[in-house]
Amino acid sequence: MRVYRMSSIGECPKALVAKNLGYEPTSESKSQDTLLKHATRFEHLVASALTDEGYNLRWTHEFCESCSSEFGDRRYGFHSEFSTFLVRVVGHIDRRLQVSDNQYPLEIKSFGRFIFPKFQKEGFSAFPEYAAQIVCQIHSEKKPGFYAACNRDTGEMLKLSLPYNGEYADGINGFTRIVAPANMDDILDQIHKVELDIQEKHLPDMKFDDKTSACRWCRLKYLCLEDGKQESVVSIESFPTLLEAADLWKEGKTFEQLSVERLEQAKQVFLRHAKDTGVNKYQVGGVKVSFLGERSRDYIDEKRLKELVSEDIIRQATRKGKIWDDIRINLLKEE
Q: Which of 16, 47, 142, 274 is least surrounded by Cβ atoms within 10 Å, i.e. has the fewest?
């Protein structure tokens, strides 16, 4: 019986089928291990903030033994899984939220400053893979669940409470109740179709949509482009100036990553001190800290605007920005 991960079960069906049929994804700019470590650091920061707010969280400090022995994975979290007549679904729960004698699954996500407002505005509808993950966890645990989404840059947090069979967990404050972000029957129908397509070696016919981030970031999007081919990449092996620039870029990205992580860790400590003590301006160790309070930015709802005025008016009000050189540089995954 094939195993599917809760974290990816909500991905594009074509991508899920293609991965299992042997199609090769394009190289990642960062390794999965690096991305996992980065996410785990922020997961700990969010969990610490929730604990400071008075929530009783449970965590396992060991790698999941089940997945380590069966798949060779080194993943933290509480093992969770369920099976149907056709597939087996496996995942890990970041934390358990203790309420009296009950423990409920808590999923933690951290977003950058551009993605967090999108989640804040559109919720799980813009992130179907996250919706499927938490719904699968709730289905597996047979209990209501909780979700904490954090802005990595500001520390702002959304705390959500989700139901199981229409029932929410009682005795916990500070979490906003929302309806289930996805239907479990629909999720199972989709993954069953994926499994049957894999068994029949049939790749679903789906088109590339450049308006969705899932398609833009997909490492198998070349399968959905009109010509079915990627733009050819020229491999350069003997151009000293470019090779030197490549080494400088890789070295710079390493320092940049380290710098971002250290600055973020320090920032969270400074922010927590200001909020806990009420001292908004202070100096320490040659650093001046000024906490200016919580802020938000107004934005124009383009979808609503298009409903209120004609496209002709929008076209007249549209201005072209300055032209810039759009160059994208990614680190290739090491062989």
A: 142
- Edge to edge, what strands does the sheet with 78-83 contain? 2-5, 87-93, 78-83
Q: How far apart (Å, rounded) are the C-alpha atoms in residues 230 and 253? A: 26
Q: How does pLDDT run across 39-92, given as a tens digit for each residue?
A: 778 888 899 999 999 999 998 877 778 787 777 777 778 999 999 999 999 999
pTM: predicted TM-score of the whole model, two decimal places: 0.65
| Total count of residues recorded for the chain | 335
Contact 78, 92 (CB under 8 A): yes
Task: List the one residue out of 112, 108, 123, 107 whose CA is nearest residue 154.
Answer: 112
The answer, yes or no, to whether residue 228 has pLDDT greater than 50, is no
| Region of poorest pLDDT, from 34-38, 87-91, 93-97 | 34-38
Say if residues 161 and 175 touch (Cβ distance below 8 Å).
yes
If you search the block for the tokens 């509808």, which residue do you land on?
Answer: 125
Cβ(160)–Cβ(124) under 8 Å? no
Residue ranges matching CATH 3.90.320 in the chain: 2-220
Q: Which helix (H) or strand (E) holds 5?
A: strand 2-5
Query: For strand 78-83 and strand 281-284, is the pairing parallel, antiparallel, or unpaired?
Result: unpaired
> Which pLDDT score, from 0 to 100, does residue 255 have?
84
- How high is the pLDDT of residue 314? 79
**Which residues are 95's β-sheet partners?**
106
CATH assignment of 2-220?
Answer: 3.90.320
Question: Which distant-in-sequence residues (6+ apart) come within 8 Å of 24 by Cβ?
Answer: none
Q: How many CA atoms lie within 13 A of 303 on its CB side?
A: 2
Q: How far apart are CA 316 and CA 175, in angstroms?
A: 43
How high is the mean pLDDT of the chain? Answer: 84
**Residue 52 contacts residue 24 (beta carbons within 8 Å):** no
> What phi and psi values does residue 216 have, to the nearest 5 degrees?
-65, -35
